[in-house]
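Budget justification aside, the reviewers requested a transparent look at the raw inputs and outputs of the sequence design task funded under Objective 1. We therefore reproduce one unedited record. The lines immediately below are the structure tokens for a 240-residue chain.
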């Protein structure tokens, strides 16, 4: 009777150990599943990151995604026409440079009337964007840029800055080429009509493109009618 009792008491012990082993096996199975799931997730994540990196690399190297804007247009509705969006190559054998050249440094002034209405000359003609703009009493003022051509404008006052490392002649035609606008006896930029030109208060009878730029030259172009009498212009003391 004692043997049967001992056998009966020992059985639950063996059964308990087997149950613990089975539990450990089940836990081990669940752990393997979790580890496998984590591994699969990591592989998928690496793949997604790789695809995104390739896409971003192609996008950044695409020629259609320039690092800087080609032009920052003067959107003042009073300007005759915005800038040309120059990028640096020479125009009329007039190059650009990263800094302004001041060996030959003079200023002329240009005023334009279309059918008697004054039109502004935009800032940034002959200037390669991006610009550094600040506010002045005359509106936006270009204080820095990627590059400057030897003929350029800093603001909307109509002052043409001639800043060249060599002494040479420049004409109003050179300036309009840098502006990217036509200048003929019957057209000034987008404005069509008979062009009446004045230079320092006197009627200029030659071809408008040939009007010379020299120190304190005051140039006026009237397109259409009425013809506005030549208007004077006073240069600021710091403009030679």
């Amino acid at each position: 009777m004692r043997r049967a009792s001992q056998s009966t008491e020992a059985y639950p012990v063996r059964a308990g150990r087997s149950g613990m082993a089975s539990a450990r096996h089940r836990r081990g199975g669940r752990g393997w599943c979790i580890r496998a799931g984590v591994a699969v997730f990591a592989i998928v994540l690496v793949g997604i990151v790789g695809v995104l990196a390739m896409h971003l690399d192609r996008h950044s190297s695409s020629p259609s995604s320039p690092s800087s804007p080609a032009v920052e247009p003067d959107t003042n509705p009073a300007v005759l026409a915005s800038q040309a969006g120059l990028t640096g190559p020479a125009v009329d054998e007039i190059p650009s440079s990263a800094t302004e050249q001041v060996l030959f440094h003079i200023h002329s002034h240009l005023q334009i009337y279309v059918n008697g209405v004054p039109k502004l000359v935009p800032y940034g003609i002959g200037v390669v964007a991006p610009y550094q703009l600040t506010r002045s009493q005359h509106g936006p003022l270009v204080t820095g840029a990627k590059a400057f051509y030897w003929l350029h404008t800093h603001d909307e006052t109509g002052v043409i800055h001639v800043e060249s490392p060599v002494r040479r002649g420049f004409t109003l035609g050179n300036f309009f080429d840098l502006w990217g606008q036509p200048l003929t006896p019957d057209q000034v930029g987008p404005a069509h009509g008979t062009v009446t030109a004045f230079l320092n208060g006197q009627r200029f009878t030659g071809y408008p493109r040939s009007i010379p730029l020299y120190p304190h030259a005051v140039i006026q172009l009237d397109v259409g009618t009425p013809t506005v009498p030549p208007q004077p212009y006073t240069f600021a003391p710091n403009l030679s």
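The first strand starts at residue 96 and ends at 97. Residues 96-223 form one domain. Computational costs for records of this kind are itemized in the attached budget.
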